[in-house]
Predict the structure of DNA repair protein RadA.
Amino acid sequence: MAAKGTRPAYRCTECGWTTVKWVGRCGECQAWGSVTEVGAVSARTTAAKSVERPAVPIGEVDVTRAQARPTGVPEFDRVLGGGLVPGAVVLVAGEPGIGKSTLLLDVAGRAARGGEPGHERRVLYISGEESAAQVRSRAERIEAMARTLFLASETDLATVLGQIDQVQPELVIIDSVQTISSADVEGAAGNVSQVREVAASIIATAKSRGIAAMLVGHVTKDGSIAGPRVLEHLVDVVVQFEGDRHSRLRLVRAVKNRYGPTDEVGCFDLSDVGITGLADPSGLFLSNRTAAVPGTCVTVTLEGRRPLVTEVQALVDQTEMPNPRRATSGLDSARVGMILAVLGARAKAPIGRKDVFVSTVGGVRITEPAADLALTLALASALTDQALPTGTVAFGEVGLAGELRPVTGAHRRLAEAARLGFTTAIVPRGVVGGGPVPDGMRVVEVATVLEAVTVAAAPAAPALSAAVR
């Protein structure tokens, strides 16, 4: 009988979890196909090797090699930290059909035209999902044609590396990493081993030659990047492409960035003629009407470091059904349910036998608690059928006790609201902190939900007070 220590062991290549028998799914990180057999650990020694590039004092290191070069798309450069660094590898992740290929083709065209006349940048676009003719048709439609933009439709890794050798590009785009496969690795394209091999080869080529590389990656049903988790650790920048398919708005945010901040967000407008950066996207999230309407309130959210003025709409209607409806669009349903409970318990608002519908304007999705106060005021306005005063914004977090809590970035929110012409801001007490208030902006600090509802009602205060007390 073999000794217990000689039994074969299997280890997960993602998290290091070990087991004595092979399983298809890791018991620790739940990754599929990542458990492989490992041999006995043996001690190894490595002899010293001659150094081809000796170490130099840190003050003599050439920093120009790490300077970012703009891509020609300002909103994308904002997220990347100024542009693409030679040798950097960027992973762009997003759901299928969200617009990743359109964005990167626009980046490829602008980057190719971004050089000086006669010294344009050479860009190689590798498409593993579409033919070169299909890519050209899209490039003509979005005006991404360029003389030094090269297209190739390849799915073999060796051929892709050969294309890079022949074109000698400054930027290479792989669309997508799940469609490329290596003949030296078993399995179909897109599995764990293939994705790891393809990514490692592209990264090694980009680092050794100083080529900026962008890899397109699909996401799974739960929103995580498909493929091995180690892929996110190998690349320099991970960019998430988000948006609702029924809306034209697209958001690009950096999840990981070795060359810049991870709290920047780029906004784009996706249409039939291409994708356009939005330097001032706040207008997309506001209604075009001029008269005040009950059930609406404007708030200021922070996407990274960028303030966005967004309108929240609410509709409250009487129902005879035993279970009133609670429908939401663009807001967290659990958060809406909590606000309704606070209004009913702390402000005595009669909402128990009423249908409630809540939505945002422009298809934007609000996740931060700073929109709680605006949602509360919109619901109170819809309940009493009294519109809030024109030019009013509100932001603040609502607690279960009915208290209002301060939120971060208050001064940036106030400055953005004042820039768009709003004159009154309802905020929790202490949120301003004695700092400067924009000219023409009146800040009203409140402590509780009931106080905020009463202040916001203004001329309709008697009717509103009677409804919520």
In short: The CA atoms of residues 104 and 159 lie 21 Å apart. Confidence is low (pLDDT under 50) at residues 460-469. The chain has three domains: 9-38, 66-279, 284-468. The first helix runs from residue 74 to 80.
